User: What shape does this take?
Amino acid sequence: MLVLGIESSCDETSAAVVSDGARILSNVVASQIALHRPYGGVVPELASRHHLKIINTVVTDALREAGATLDQIEGVAATCGPGLASSLLIGLTFGKSLALARGLPFIGINHMEAHLISPWLSAGRAFEPNVSLIVSGGHTMLVHVRAIGDHTVLGQTTDDAAGEAFDKVAKLLGLGYPGGPEVEKAARSGNPAAIPFPRGKLNDPDFDFSFSGVKTAVLYWLRKREQKEKAEVSSQKSVIRSQKPEDGSPSPASDAPRSTLNAQTLSDLCASFQQAVVDVLVGKAIAAALAMRVRFVTVSGGVACNGALRDQLAAACRRNGLELLMADRKLCTDNAGMIAGLGWHKLHAGLRSPLDLDAQPNLRL
Ligand code: KG4
Ligand code: ZN
Assistant: This one.
């Protein structure tokens, strides 16, 4: 069975064709990052307008890349939540209209549930019980997955998502958007032990997360440093003022630039922040897998592109006798491959959604 999947929950317009529940024949992702970059975050109105503009082209490209025609598609799956209402509506309405026009079965997909299967699609392996870490800009959660469609949320963030913390810290530091990749780049030449940022909830017995503390700790660290620099500059000024020539020519200190971090301090700060986040994600994921007595840990979501997280999670799994499945980077971030993959399984099991299914921005797992 060939299933067409459509994803438009946030700022990626994506369409994919999947066969046999595990084989991705195409997975076209049109990112809107450049569109939202000047605003430092996703602007919902711009996102939905852009989805509308390009969705037909993206679906056509996905069919062409898969070497399939619409006549060969046997089912349609589209994300129905969670996400931005105005963005969800575009892909969902497109998918339902296509299904209606072609007389095809339709299924609405929970975007978070689709993240749970992306590591298995990446690996091309049959599904096994696992603990799954979903770590993105909007969510950070640990899920015990017994089978496709049978799962329990073990814990999630009580405030910021991990990706949100990366983005906010990048903004504080004047780095680009989205922040995660920029922080990771800067962290590469930094010392992760330079600044002891807090590891929120790491030692709590539950599986919830909290990342607002580490973000605030970065803010306070920067403020403290700025105050210290100001104090140093003003003490230099008073020394220079007492040596100032009588002709009134400007003193060098009055032209001093506003305090900025030098490259090494910026790298140390980014590496220390990243390490604090990674320690918590790895520690909690391992604890959950051991508590649930599963053999597999899986990870997906945009933050799962982070090299430090991938390396350290792999090492921790090896130490604890666990197998790790990580989604390929393209399947980590939002994409329709995972929507079509989960849709295939649901349609194959005989599940259908009504064509009056509405977008559900706050849909939960
Ligand atoms: O899954 P995703 O594409 O979209 C949703 O949020 O659903 O994830 C985007 C998030 C952003 O917060 C971005 O900064 C973060 O993933 N991210 C990263 C990296 N690449 C993307 N965070 C840390 N390191 C990265 N390499
Ligand atoms: Zn996502």
The domain at 2-127+333-348 is CATH 3.30.420.40 (Nucleotidyltransferase; domain 5). The chain has two domains: 2-127+333-348, 130-240+260-330.
